[in-house]
Amino acid sequence: MPQPRPRTPLDPRTLLDLDQAHVWHPYGPMPGTATPLLVESAAGVRLRLAEPAEGHRELVDGMSSWWAAIHGYGHPVLDAAVRGQLDRMSHVMFGGLTHEPAVRLAATLVEITPAPLQHVFLADSGSVSVEVAVKMCLQYWASLGRPEKHRLLTWRGGYHGDTFHPMSVCDPKGGMHRLWGGVLPRQVFAGEPPAGFDAAVDEAYAAELADLLERHAGELAAVIVEPVVQGAGGMRFHSPGYLRLLRELCDAHDVLLVFDEIATGFGRTGELFAAGHAGVAPDVMCLGKALTGGYLTMAATLCTSRVADGISRGEVPVLAHGPTFMGNPLAAAAANASLGLLLDQDWRTEVKRIESALRTGLAPAAELPGVADVRVLGAIGVVQLDHPVDMAAATRAATRHGVWLRPFRDLVYTMPPYVTGEDDLARIGEAVVAAAAAG
Q1: What is the per-residue pLDDT for 181?
Q2: 355 Cα distance to chain centroid
Q3: Closest CA to 285 of 438, 423, 136
Q4: What is the distance between the alpha carbons of residues 273 and 204, in angstroms, rounded to a whole number?
Q5: Exactly one of 149, 283, 289, 413 is catalytic; which is it?
Q6: Choice among 11-15, 29-33, 48-52, 128-132 with the minimum mean pLDDT
Q7: Catalytic entry in 124, 171, 260, 410
Q8: Alpha-carbon gap, residue 36 to 15, rounded angstroms
Q9: Does residue 289 carry a catalytic annotation?
Q10: Is 73 a catalytic residue?
Q11: What is the per-residue pLDDT across 143-200, written as a single tens digit (0 to 9) for each?
């Protein structure tokens, strides 16, 4: 067997120079204007840097790597699952073939999600899972001979991904996709849902939703929303009552309901899925991020038998979508191990523990000048400023406290791994407050 070519290790400065010259980072210019921190390794809830930053070689990860690494890094159960699967096969095409990790994963997802969801389409990323959800809804109505039902309704302040149909249901003015306004499909938008998880349903807003559904029912394929928490669109919380209202309105006007649980799924809000706060089930649900515990990219789109049967009765009786790495065995093995870890522990108590610590740790931010709001729900803590955050200054302030945060827009927030200990949660709280003061 040929031996791998030896590679000369690159020093940190060379790596960062190459990074600036060639690597296009998310939501950044090319070439980059800010030097990223170079991560050498990660274990538990800590990122180890190749070079110290603000006096720290290790940073507590307050972001769960964009909300995915709920069990932290280098978890022995997840490591063993991936290594064991690697010994069997790393990948095999999913067209015409199947395998135990994917089948087991689909069965588990059906078991733990709301009962009407019975069918699972495995995708590569959260954005693609939304693309699949939209395609399911459009094809469902086309298969029933109603192709005029091709638009989507959502509310402002949302974010559903960076590919084209998901961009069309992100906030059209305050979001990051304004550039594409003249290219994307024109969807129907309600105003932002009134803020406050514990707030009563606002009757005027409920009437607005009812009016929009009634007026556009003949052209609407689906309503799509992030339940309870709007993520990258603004980290806003709203009453579960609006989800119950949407379910009633969709049923009354023969419109499908899609919940994007990519950010909220797997316990983050204090329920296994945010839909649980409302006690309702969607027709289609999107999952991602924490699905594999942050180990490998994978997402899922679940639907009811009504949706699947409708598509199967159409002129084109198949869902014409098939990612090359669909059902990847390594990712499915990681997902099965991650779900096992989550479900076998008292995750609800752990999330409540984090919620309590974040409420205590972030409370001092409310007294800072320039802070508009401080809010916590489950393992999500948010400090909202009354001005755009100075991202560089806020990041440096957090790093000086030994914590990695990624502020954006007018927000300094944290979504720590569920395994974060009390001392590290206190440190994260101090870092968020310091970042808010600096930003």
Answers
A1: 74
A2: 19
A3: 136
A4: 27
A5: 289
A6: 29-33
A7: 260
A8: 11
A9: yes
A10: no
A11: 999 999 999 999 999 999 988 889 888 888 766 666 777 788 899 999 999 999 999 9
CB-based contacts of 307: which residues, under 8 Å, 6+ apart? 119, 136, 137, 140, 256, 283, 284
Residues 6 or more apart in contact with residue 261 via CB below 8 angstroms: 226, 227, 273, 274, 275, 285, 286, 287
- The pLDDT tens digits for 27-78 are 888 988 889 999 999 999 999 999 999 999 999 999 999 999 999 999 999 9
Residue 265, token pair as written in the block: 């799924």
Question: Which residues partner with 371 through β-bridges?
Answer: 385
Measured distance CA(271)–CA(278) in Å, rounded: 10
Q: How far is CA 360 from the centre of its chain?
A: 25
Catalytic residue flag (residue 27): yes
**In the block, residue with structure tokens 């997902």:** 335
Asked which of 8-17, 38-47, 419-428 is least confident by mean pLDDT, the reply is 8-17
For the chain, percent of residues with pLDDT exceeding 90:
89
- Chain-wide mean pLDDT for the chain? 95
Maximal CA-CA distance, the chain: 71
**CA proximity to 398, closest of 411, 387, 388:** 411
Phi/psi for 373 (5° steps) reads -165, 150
Identify residue 405 by its one-letter amino acid code.
L
Q: How many CA atoms lie within 13 A of 144 on its CB side?
A: 17
Q: Is residue 378 left, alpha or beta, with left meaning phi > 0 and alpha meaning psi from -120 to 50?
A: left
For residue 200, what are its two tokens?
A: 């009563």
Q: Cα separation of 229 and 197, whole Å? A: 9
Residue 64 CB neighbours (<10 A): 26
Q: Which of 140, 159, 242, 295 is catalytic?
A: 159
Active-site residue identified among 27, 87, 344, 346: 27
CA terminus-to-terminus distance, the chain: 56
* Catalytic (active site) residue 295: no
